[in-house]
Specification:
57% of the residues lie in helices and 0% in strands. It is an all-alpha fold.
Length: 74
């Protein structure tokens, strides 16, 4: 699960997976903007068969937050 989430983030942000760890902040550390975050979450919705309501997006700050959210909503 973690590896797939990291792969999606890396693909969306066009960065190397080695630049990403669980404590990486998606916007601050990895340079994502709000559009990147929306597109990344759309990819995760498609990949994992989940739905991420807009009100939940602000809770997803770090890569670990995203992984935990995906796992708890599958």
């Amino acid at each position: 699960m973690y590896d797939r989430v990291v792969e999606i983030i890396a693909n969306q942000l066009q960065i190397d997976v080695d630049m990403i760890d669980g404590s990486s902040k998606v916007m601050e550390d990895l340079g994502a903007d709000s559009l990147d975050v929306v597109e990344m979450l759309m990819s995760m919705e498609e990949s994992f068969g989940i739905s991420v309501p807009d009100e939940d997006i602000e809770e997803l700050v770090t890569v670990s937050d995203v992984v935990a959210y995906v796992e708890s909503n599958m």
